[in-house]
Design brief:
Blueprint: E1 2-7, E2 11-17, E3 19-20, E4 23-24, E5 30-35, H1 42-55, E6 65-70, H2 76-87, E7 91-93, H3 110-123, E8 127-132, E9 135-141, E10 147-154, H4 156-166, H5 186-212, E11 217-221, H6 225-228, E12 237-238, H7 242-254
Parallel strand pairs: 1-6, 6-7, 8-11, 11-12
Antiparallel strand pairs: 1-2, 2-5, 3-4, 8-9, 9-10
């Protein structure tokens, strides 16, 4: 089995892939998510992970390789230690240096690299990947298959947290679609501004990208993708495990056999 780990600022997604004939099979067999806690040790993460393995009848000895995409550098050593200590494997970390022929002209997060590689593999050239996470990222591939850049904006949870933190009387709220744009209570007003404002941001960035490059497809991923994609008709598909698939694909580009 193959273990793919996506370390984000808020959550860590862990995908367990089956293998056959020394190849990693597409689509994770199981995906787990846990909080991304910078002070947590390798042993503490291992206890949680091994418990989840055991619950479903898996054993650590079944893991043949481990690969990670991380945007939290302080946790890299933690998961490197975890892989060595509990799986007896070297942890392969995704970077622009090992992602194959795709080139990146500036420093791009490992999760965005994995997303682009997976999206190109599944859909070909000429598209946008939107990752709805703590931050919302847009990554663009032109018709020649070249990564040409993208955009980064705040996610709705960051916007809500900012209002709560920097104002004296605005509360914490649940992020959800309100019944109407005109709120009759403070919470409804905040939900309207954050939700519909966020939708407007997504649509505006897409519209401007389409003026600058040809777009044949738009796909979404990330924990918050289901919240807004029904409002953006141009999104072709929602692939919640896109980053994990990208980790798998990049690992296979660098490692021919398990």
């Amino acid at each position: 089995m193959f273990l793919a780990i996506d370390i984000g600022n808020t959550n860590i997604s862990i995908g367990l892939f089956s293998t056959k004939n020394k190849k990693v099979l597409q689509k994770p067999l199981k995906v787990w998510r846990m909080l991304s806690l910078k002070r947590k040790t390798a042993d503490e993460y291992a206890v949680s992970l091994i418990s989840m393995f055991s619950y479903l009848g898996f054993k650590t000895e079944q893991i043949k390789a481990v690969a990670t995409a991380s945007v939290v550098p302080c946790l890299n050593g933690t998961f490197e230690e975890l892989a060595k200590k509990y799986f007896k494997k070297e942890n392969f970390f995704i970077s622009k240096a090992n992602c194959g022929k795709m080139t990146f002209s500036y420093e791009v997060g490992a999760d965005r690299i994995a997303n682009v590689i997976a999206a190109k593999s599944f859909y070909g050239n000429g598209g946008i990947v939107i990752d709805f996470g703590t931050a919302t990222t847009f990554d663009c591939i032109n018709l020649n298959g070249t990564y040409i850049g993208g955009a980064i904006s705040t996610g709705p949870e960051l916007s809500a947290q900012s209002l709560f933190t920097h104002t004296a009387q605005l509360p914490k709220i649940e992020i959800k679609k309100p019944a109407t744009a005109i709120g009759s209570k403070t919470v409804e007003c905040m939900q309207s501004g954050i939700y519909f404002g966020y939708i407007g941001t997504i649509k505006e960035i897409i519209a401007r990208i389409k003026k600058e490059t040809t777009v044949k497809w738009i796909i979404a991923t990330g924990g918050l993708s289901s919240l807004v994609t029904s409002e953006v008709e141009e999104i072709k598909a929602v692939l919640p495990d896109l980053t994990l698939e990208g980790i798998r694909i990049i690992w296979e580009k660098n490692n021919k056999f398990l």
